[in-house]
Amino acid sequence: MANTDATTLEDGPDLLIPGMGEEGENLVVKQADEQTAEAEEQKFGTSRADRKTSFDLADFPVLTGEEEDWRFTPLHRLAGLHLPEGDDNLLTGPAPTVNVTEHEGVSLETVARDDKRLGSFMVPDDRTSAAAWASFKEATVVTIADNVELEEPITISVEGNSTEPAAQHIHVAIGANSKVNLVINQTGNAVVNQNMEFAVGQGANANVTSIQAWDDDAVHVGSQQASLGKDSTFKHVVITYGGSLVRLTPITRFAGDGATTNMYGLYFADAGQHLEHRIFIDHSTDNCTSDALYKGALQGQGARTVWVGDVLIRSNTQGTDSFEKNENLLLSEGAQADSIPNLEIETGIIDSGGHASSVGRFDESQLFYLMARGIPEPLARKLIVRGFLNEVIQRIGIEDVEQSVTDVMEDEIAGLEF
């Protein structure tokens, strides 16, 4: 595949980047005296750190499609989830139902929107997230007590049964020093704007897999935000293959030193599907580690994927180790993938940081190697696709889920025509 962007900084601990001091890049910007406040306002938002966050829907104007964060998203396919008619027309449809498997130390509640746990760290950062916050009436709260260790996965089933535009809020609290696997299965038909929170306690180890297996006509816009306590570990795996349009924004914020996040994703887009993933990793505390790997395969006319990876290493941090990578495999004519990795470093003292991105067709060297050993070309291409996808599948870490995702991908691969 053609490599469109690859940058790596790995020169050992306390790497000092040339041209940068401990407080970040030393820039001198001369501004004319007559520069107006309006000109200053136009510069707002050039950094991921400047992104507006607010619970007030009015702070996010009606979208035009010209916004940087929305220029890849076909607004006409959002089914009204972005409230194009204005702030007074909230989302009133029935939210998908939520069921949680029973386990000792795990509780399930339905709470009113004024519950203080909701929005305790998650603040909307775009219009759709703010619309979901303004519209939901009740929320689902899943609480895992402190010091709980479960081998069997906790399954959160989210099932859509309506195409009326709806809002949904789910809050998951993982207690201190607990070790759990969570599987979120999103199925059925829905038009839903969803906020999901993961509060990960100190020393906890949470492995979360979110599977978007919606019906063909479903529309899903979601923000999945996590806050990591001191010395915690959070693995977040996204598997998306269902729905007409899915746009997810997984976000990890560090609330304590020494935490680790692994953000992985796999998406397979067929003809006409629009699958969009926008991750954000906010390094705001010391000695934290992040690793992100998203891979996508596309086939069919009008298959479209978008991946944007934002990693921010703030000026008050040290000892950060971060890498993000996105790879996309185009399996047919008429498919399009956009991949934009963004690494923003405000400090000169980091352990390592880097990003990589690629979009392309088959690796001809791999294809030649297999065909030279007597494997027919169509089968060789399918073997390459299988290996490409498996790199993410094997990182899920839950055997039953890995097998079920493998089965789905095998069905997709079996239908490929070369």
Structure description:
This protein is mostly beta strands and 418 residues long. It folds into 2 domains: 3-32 and 46-361, no CATH class; 362-418, no CATH class. It is built from 5 helices and 21 strands. It has helices at residues 37-43, 127-135, 364-371, 377-393, 399-414; strands spanning 3-9, 15-16, 20-21, 24-25, 97-100, 106-112, 138-144, 154-174, 179-200, 205-212, 219-228, 233-240, 245-254, 260-269, 274-283, 289-298, 304-313, 321-330, 336-345, 349-350, 352-360. It has a 17-stranded mixed β-sheet that branches. Helix 4 packs antiparallel against helix 5. The protein is globular. It starts with a strand and ends with a helix. Residues 4-19 and 21-45 have low confidence and may be disordered.
Core attributes:
two-stranded antiparallel sheet; 21 strands; 43% strand; 418 residues
Provide the fold topology.
Blueprint: E1 3-9, E2 15-16, E3 20-21, E4 24-25, H1 37-43, E5 97-100, E6 106-112, H2 127-135, E7 138-144, E8 154-174, E9 179-200, E10 205-212, E11 219-228, E12 233-240, E13 245-254, E14 260-269, E15 274-283, E16 289-298, E17 304-313, E18 321-330, E19 336-345, E20 349-350, E21 352-360, H3 364-371, H4 377-393, H5 399-414
Parallel strand pairs: 7-8, 8-9, 9-10, 9-11, 10-12, 11-13, 12-14, 13-15, 14-16, 15-17, 16-18, 17-19, 18-21
Antiparallel strand pairs: 1-21, 2-20, 3-4, 5-8, 6-7
Mean pLDDT: 90
Query: Quick one: overall form?
Result: globular
- Total beta strands: 21
Succession of helices and strands: EEEEHEEHEEEEEEEEEEEEEEEHHH
Report the uncertain regions.
Answer: 4-19, 21-45
- Assign a percent range to the helix content: 10-25%
Number of helices: 5
**Portion in beta strands:** 35-45%
Radius of gyration: 22 Å
Question: How many strands, what sense, and barrel or not for the largest sheet?
Answer: 17 strands, mixed
Q: Into how many domains do the coordinates divide?
A: 2
Structural class: mainly beta
Distance between the termini: 17 Å
Family: Belongs to the iron-sulfur cluster assembly SufBD family.
Pfam family, one: SUFBD_core
Organism: Yaniella flava
Protein name: Fe-S cluster assembly protein SufD
